[in-house]
Amino acid sequence: MEEAMLMYSTVLDIDESLTRDDFIRLVIEWNQSSPHQDCVIPDLKWSGQGNIRYGDGSLWLGIEEYRNHNTVAIRYEMTNAEGVVWDTDFIMNFDEMRMAIQLDRSLTEGAQVEDYRFSVPFFVTMLIKEGYLKDDNGLPVLRDPIDITSDNVDLIASIVNHERQYSLPVVYISKTSTNHALVNVSKLCNSLKGVAHVLLEQGCQLDLAIRNACGDQNEYLGAVGVYFPNGDHKRLLPKRYCNDSGLFANRIIRIVLQYANAQKTDLSYTWAGVTYSLLNDRKSAADYARQVAENQREEYVDAFDQENKELHQKVDELTAKNASLEAEVRGLRRKLNNAEGTPLLVYGEEEEFFPDEIKEMILEELEKRANNLSSGTRRSDVLNDVLEANPVQGRSDQRRSNLRNALTDYSKMLPSKKRQLQDLGFEIDEDGKHYSLSYYGDSRYFTTLPKSGSDWRGGRNSVSEIIQKLM
Q1: CA 236 to chain centre
Q2: Looking at the predicted structure, is the pLDDT value of residue 454 above 80?
Q3: What are phi and psi of 284, to 5 degrees?
Q4: Closest by alpha carbon to 111, among 410, 393, 375, 405?
């Protein structure tokens, strides 16, 4: 199975009114009220137990209670028909009244998935509706924007001027001179609920007051600013996104989620960490019970033959159980070691057009470089080690092959050809005597094909040029 990719991660302060039973019932309600029936675990009736699991191998919900740390961990896992495994974890520490929510995705062997979009767990909305989320140092955690008006200009000023502490990033959206937001605010709020605060300027008439309060360091005329708890700041200008409010929102969402997912989460706030601690405690108890049994056997072996036989059986049972626990602990330790590591590379500004596009490009270039190096050199050993540790799925090779099949015998844009090109991500428009093709709608990657023609070599020439430029 492919190593899990973290898609969504947040840690939230919770109101003291939330009890253990409230928490578990709310997670179960989240599952049982899902509009997607294939996600609902059938016959799930909870009667107060901890350390229990419902469902089967491809669709299950597990509850683990770690009493030593007053923590309840719940995992919901679903494997869909395409072989994609989705894990949603809810970890609630009732001593600290904090909750971690994580969503990660992994692929079973042979899974072929082009679309890896996801939705923020609706459970966050349920927490907001029930009033269980505490404010973030005066900033309410909402699923709607906080309006900046003449009455609270000091709020955005305190953030821009680094005068306020907060735990979640802040996204500030300014209005244009015609009082429009150039980003899809609804989409932004829905995708960032629980991981960021969205502040929206009420109108451009506030520009002067806000700029005066912020010392001209704030965003205005449609620009968007992302302010991080560590003091970092990123400014995004709408002109780069060709007035596409959805594309603009996607870029902001990616920036915030990359920040949130890169934050180190204490292992006690992860499913693996809680289950590892529970197994360790159970292993220690099994070790102790085995030692007691052995001591008792040695002390009474001469006088109590029957008891000795029973203790032998108990020791054997505990030894087998201990071996099983040790195997589970080793597996979890490997997972935790991976969880504590840092990635070799991080994404830059470029958007990924399909899953693993950027990764496969980098690995292909590394392979070309490695093939030109002398064996036995440090550089050769390091590059080959990275290549062996990161096998590629071959999506890029498959897409190149599909493009060759579509264009090698091209003479005109038949419906089947058009559909093949669209499946590969090309947006196609008629332009006079030609068809205009843009790769995933990005104007930087543009080419043309004739509407008709007798030059059967044109397709071969076009596919070579397109592969060289795009793939």
Answers
A1: 22
A2: no
A3: -60, -40
A4: 393
The one-character DSSP state at 342 is -
| CA diameter of the chain | 103
> Which domains are delineated in the chain?
1-134 (3.30.530), 141-269 (3.40.30.10), 341-392 (no CATH), 394-470 (3.30.920)
Q: How many helices (H) and strands (E) does the chain have?
A: 13, 14
Structure tokens at 179: 């009082």
Q: Which residue is listed with tokens 């008006």?
A: 149
What's the CA gap between 112 and 84, in Å, rounded? 9
Single out the residue of 145, 151, 174, 156 nearest to residue 227, CA to CA: 156
Angle between helices 305-339 and 271-300 (to 10 degrees): 160
| This prediction's pTM | 0.66
pLDDT tens track for 378-437: 999 999 999 888 888 788 888 888 888 888 777 788 888 888 888 888 888 887 788 888
The Cα-based distances of 385 to 291, 294, 360 in angstroms read 44, 47, 16
Q: Is the dihedral of CA 117, 121, 122, 128 positive or negative?
A: negative
Q: How far is CA 422 from the centre of its chain?
A: 27
Strands 84-93 and 98-107: antiparallel
Contact by Cβ (8 Å): 143, 196: no
Q: What is the distance between the alpha carbons of residues 374 and 193, in angstroms, rounded to a whole number?
A: 52
**pLDDT tens per residue across span 66-76:** 998 999 999 99
Tokens for 192, please give them.
């960032």
Structure-block tokens of residue 390: 């990161």
71-75, 140-144, 200-204, 235-239: least confidently modelled range = 235-239
Q: Model confidence over 316-338: pLDDT tens digits?
A: 776 776 666 666 666 666 565 55
Number of alpha carbons in the 13 Å side-chain half-sphere of residue 276: 17
